[in-house]
Every structure is written in C-alpha cells, then in structure tokens.
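Action item from last meeting closed. Structure (290 res):
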C-alpha cells in the first residue's frame, strides 16, 4: 500500500515542470493589464470525496533502520535512494523520516538529481507535523515547506526558489506527507481484495491515492527473495492535473510478512519504464542530530 507513497518521496514527484520562457517584449507591443492576484482561499477536495481515517498498526520500520533502493530506467541503472527512520532529536514524542535520492554518474550526464526530504510525525498517532523537501535537479533548486495544522484542518505549503516564494493552502482534516503516509499505510493489515485510500501532500501538490491489493506472488530483488503482495495504485484526485500526464501505470510489491517492506515499484512514464528495487536493509550507526 505505502510503497507508491515511498515512490512519491524518492522519485521527487513534488517536482513541477519549469515554467515556459516568456516571449520577448517589443516597443510596439501594447501594455498588458496587470492580472489580479489569485485568491488565497484554501483549496478543498471535490464534494463527495471522503478520506477514510486509519488507526496506526504495528510500526513496519524499526528506529534506525535504513532501506536502500536502486532505480533503473529501461534496464539501465540510474539512481540510488535511501530511507531512514529515527527519533526526532530533542523530542522523544516525535519520529523523523528522511529520504535521499541521487542519480549516478551516467545519469548525471543527462539529468542530475540530488533530492532530500524529511518529515516529522507524532510517534503515537503517526500524524505528519512538518515536511521539508529540497529539490536540486540540474541547475534548478526548489525548497518546499509543508505544515499540517490538524486542529484547524489546514495544510500550508510554501515553495521557495530564486524567483521568490509561492504559498498554497488546503482544507485537509486527515492528510499526510509521503513518508508518514507510507508508514501508516504499511502498518495496516492487507490481503488480496483490500482497498485503501490516502490524502498525501508532496511539496505543493496534493494527491489522493487508492491502493488495491491484487494478488500474492513471489519476487526476487537485490535484497533477497520474498513472498509479496502486488498492489495496483490509482490516482483519485490531483490538485494539478498536468502531473497525471507524466505517468502511464504503476505497480507495487510489498512483502507479505509483518515487516511490509516496499520491495519493488514499476512505473511507465512518458520517458519510458522505471523500476525501483529494494537493494539492502541495514541499521546505521547512531545518527547525528540534523
């Protein structure tokens, strides 16, 4: 269930396409009227779209655990991603999840990516408090700051770059960052036929995903051979519908044991097929405060 949310984190779905260059102005061109500022009214989900509330189950990750993934495009190795979970420094009631994604030397020749994400969540309820995402791809550097005010039912997303900053607000009573959402989803009991739905914020974009557990099967990834569930995720709602055009299909495999490890993600995109496989599971040494 949660592996596609993990995909959202490690493959930087928070990225938005660069804005097209503005045409050159000419002396004879008429002066355009300044457009009125957009309303800051918080965005709502469509009427009738209700997000289920889930109680957290057993934590699928151990504190200090690191999952390492290898990504390939059309069978060519292109990137490595790491995901870690540990206590938030100075606050024992909170957990911090972090993810890094870095393209290799070959991929850097075409598209260089050095992305980082961290999320702070409550330990008991697995509710996201804050998300920070740094998107450093080629010469583009964006930072996203997302805060979740559950009391007010409001999510505020701020994007910052060299051009300034843009703020969006959303009405959201039961929403997650992608890493917290993945952990919550993976904590749920699932068997073929199960269906789940989550409201997720990646950067300043909002996704509502559903997950259908299709069947059980055995798969082999670099980390080993596993009995797994195949998951078919779908996008129920997108705050920016242009992002839907980037993906053709997605399939996910999650281990069928109590760990609920995200094992493999396959996605068909407009640039070809992408596969992300679990390569290693280990426990790093004590992490320095970040």
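Sequence:
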């Amino acid at each position: 269930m949660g592996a596609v949310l993990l995909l959202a984190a490690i493959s930087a779905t928070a990225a938005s396409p660069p804005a097209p260059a503005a045409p050159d102005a000419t002396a004879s061109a008429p002066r355009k009227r300044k457009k009125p500022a957009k309303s800051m009214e918080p965005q709502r989900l469509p009427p009738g779209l209700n997000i289920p509330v889930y109680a957290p189950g057993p934590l699928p990750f151990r504190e200090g655990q690191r999952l390492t993934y290898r990504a390939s495009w059309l069978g060519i190795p292109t990137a490595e991603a790491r995901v870690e979970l540990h206590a938030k420094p100075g606050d024992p009631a909170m957990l911090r999840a972090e993810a890094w994604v870095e393209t290799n030397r070959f991929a850097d020749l075409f598209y260089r990516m050095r992305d980082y994400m961290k999320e702070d969540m409550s330990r008991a309820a697995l509710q996201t408090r804050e998300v920070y995402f740094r998107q450093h791809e080629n010469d583009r550097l964006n930072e996203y700051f997302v805060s979740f005010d559950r009391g007010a039912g409001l999510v505020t997303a701020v994007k910052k770059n060299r051009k300034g900053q843009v703020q969006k607000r959303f009405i959201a009573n039961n929403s997650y960052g992608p890493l917290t959402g993945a952990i919550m989803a993976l904590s749920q009991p699932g068997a073929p036929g199960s269906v789940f739905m989550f409201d997720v914020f990646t950067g300043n974009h909002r996704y509502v995903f559903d997950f259908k557990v299709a069947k059980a099967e055995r798969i082999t990834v670099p980390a080993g051979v596993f009995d797994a569930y195949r998951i078919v995720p779908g996008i129920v709602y997108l705050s920016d519908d242009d992002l839907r055009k980037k993906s053709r299909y997605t399939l996910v495999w999650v281990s069928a044991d109590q760990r609920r490890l995200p094992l493999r993600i396959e996605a068909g995109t407009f640039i070809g097929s992408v596969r992300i496989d679990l390569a290693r599971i280990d426990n790093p040494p004590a992490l320095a405060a970040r």
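Note appended to the action item: The chain has three helices and 15 strands.
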